[in-house]
Amino acid sequence: MITDRYKLGVWQNPLNPKASDYRSFGDMMFDLKSDPFELTNLAGTADTAAIEAGLREAVHQWEQAIPRALEVDSPSGYYEGV
């Protein structure tokens, strides 16, 4: 989720069981104004907890709004959409 100031990256459960699962690395959040090179991960910090909660809610709303097309079973195990 990217706003004019913040960027939140949330790892998702991989659709393909053979794909790499990066969730153990943890989520990432950056202040694009003060850290344009995204060097300082703010995810889980007290100073930005309210901002992170708002971004996570936006991610949740987006997930509820998109079609579940990515869960379609395909021979390759990957999304083969148009």
Structure commentary:
With 82 residues, the chain is an alpha+beta fold. It has one domain. It has one helix at residues 49-65, and strands spanning 6-9, 28-31. A two-stranded antiparallel sheet has the order 1-2. The longest helix is centred in the last third of the chain and has 17 residues, at 49-65. It is globular and about 35 Å long.
In brief:
The chain is an alpha+beta fold.
Q: How much helix is in the residues?
A: 10-25%
Order of the strands making up the biggest sheet: 1-2
Query: Structurally, how many domains make up the residues?
Result: 1
What is the residue-mean pLDDT, rounded to a whole number? Answer: 83
Radius of gyration: 15 Å
Q: What is the string of SSEs from the N terminus onward? A: EEH
Q: Residue ranges: pLDDT <50 for 5 or more in a row?
A: none
Shape: globular
Number of strands: 2
What fraction strand?
Answer: 5-15%
